[in-house]
Design a protein that fits this description.
Blueprint lengths: L4 E12 L2 E12 L3 E5 L6 H9 L6 E6 L2 E2 L10 E4 L11 H6 L9 H14 L15 H13 L5 E5 L7 H18 L2 E6 L2 H7 L2 E6 L2 E6 L1 H6 L4 H6 L4 E10 L3 E6 L3 E6 L10 E6 L5 E3 L8 E11 L3 E7 L7 E6 L12 E5 L6 E3 L2
Helix pairs in contact: 3-4
């Protein structure tokens, strides 16, 4: 956790009638951090974002921004600004007028207002489109106008409610790069809500994964992907192969297990891990399994039959049935060496690194 958080959330609960949208959420977010709230629909991530913004009020708990509690403080009095899913661009105003809209309540002189609008548009690379009408903008340009309108208010925290969800795949990927570049340039705290795990992994300094109104894990993208605490987190972020294992030894930080086909391994003990009846769940990512071609060998390999395959352009997902495992393994292999030509029914050998195996709490 950061030593001096920009956002400090302590014991926040939010009820809608008997429905508990947020369940004892506590979280610190640092100044200048790009932080993502990630999870499926209905997990509470948007409710948490709206609580930070002031559009929802927690039933219990506290939210502090830059050391000051904001419970009871209206949205327009908080040092935050929000970019919504639909951008909320005013169709009767041009780009400059849209960006300047929030500045009107500050009662700036005309020259200062123009200067701040021009600076905000330059930040999002729209300085040449100030006079363009809203209906003449592309989806990506509308998204940038919404960002400029938020940034022109000079917030300490920018809140982003799935701002890229309406864009097509190519434009969305381009805007992800621009959003990260923009955050580094302005240096303020960004909090992004998304259900897209790849977007969160690509953009974030840290990620909080949420399920059922609770935070399941907070970590860096690399840590949360390679060392997920729970089966639910592991499965949500990119998918994982799971297998049952028998615990042979356990310390405070490590466990040794015996797996059906991968032999004995010692792995880090995840937070909240409890061995039930001496059993554990071990996982390995599909891309950490590699097809062994021709006479290639590995000190660590398993063999099985291809029962299905799915072509995705640069990669092919092979579904391989391994004798002794309850479920077939999913294998992600690049098509450079012909994975897309392996026929269903063929036997393949798969190499793996024992360090790629991880234990997860059920």
């Amino acid at each position: 956790m950061p030593d001096k958080p920009m956002i400090a959330i302590e014991g926040v609960n939010k009820f809608y009638g008997i429905y508990k949208a947020l369940d004892n959420v506590s979280l610190d977010i640092a100044a200048g951090e790009f932080f993502s709230l990630l999870g499926p629909s209905g997990c509470g991530k948007t409710t948490l974002l709206r609580s930070i913004a002031g559009f929802d009020t927690p039933t219990e708990g506290d939210i502090r921004i830059d050391g000051q509690s904001v419970i009871g403080v209206p949205p327009n009095r908080r040092p935050t600004n929000m970019v919504f899913q639909n951008y909320a661009i005013f169709p009767h105003l041009n780009v400059e007028e849209n960006v300047a809209y929030g500045l009107k309540r500050l009662k700036l002189d005309a020259a200062e207002e123009r200067r701040r609008v021009a600076a905000a548009l330059e930040q999002v690379r729209l300085g040449h489109l100030g006079k363009r009408r809203a209906h003449e903008l592309s989806g990506g340009q509308r998204q940038r106008v919404a960002l400029a309108r938020a940034l022109v208010m000079r917030p300490k925290v920018l809140l982003l409610d799935e701002p890229l969800s309406a864009l097509d795949k190519k434009l969305r990927e381009e805007m992800q790069v621009e959003l990260r570049t923009l955050q580094r340039a302005v240096g303020i705290t960004f909090i992004l809500v998304t259900h897209d795990q790849y977007e969160a992994l690509a953009l974030s300094d840290r990620i909080a994964v949420m399920f059922g109104g609770q935070i399941a894990q907070v970590a860096t993208p690399k840590e949360i992907y390679q060392r997920p605490n729970t089966r639910q987190v592991a499965d949500f972020l990119g998918g994982m192969n799971f297998m049952k294992a028998r615990v042979t030894n356990e310390t405070a930080t490590r466990i040794s297990v015996e797996t059906p086909r991968f032999g004995g391994v010692t792995v880090d003990k995840p937070l909240g891990f409890v061995a039930r009846n001496g059993a554990a769940t071990i996982g390995i990512r599909p891309e950490r399994l590699r097809v062994l071609w021709d006479d290639a060998h590995s000190d660590f390999e398993v063999a099985g039959k291809v029962v299905d395959r799915h072509y995705f352009g640069e990669i092919t997902h092979l579904i391989v049935d391994i004798p002794g495992l309850e479920q077939p393994l999913s294998v992600s292999e690049t098509n450079n060496f012909g994975a897309d030509d392996i026929p269903v029914g063929d036997t393949v050998r798969l190499a793996y690194d024992p360090d790629a195996l991880v234990a997860v709490a059920d």
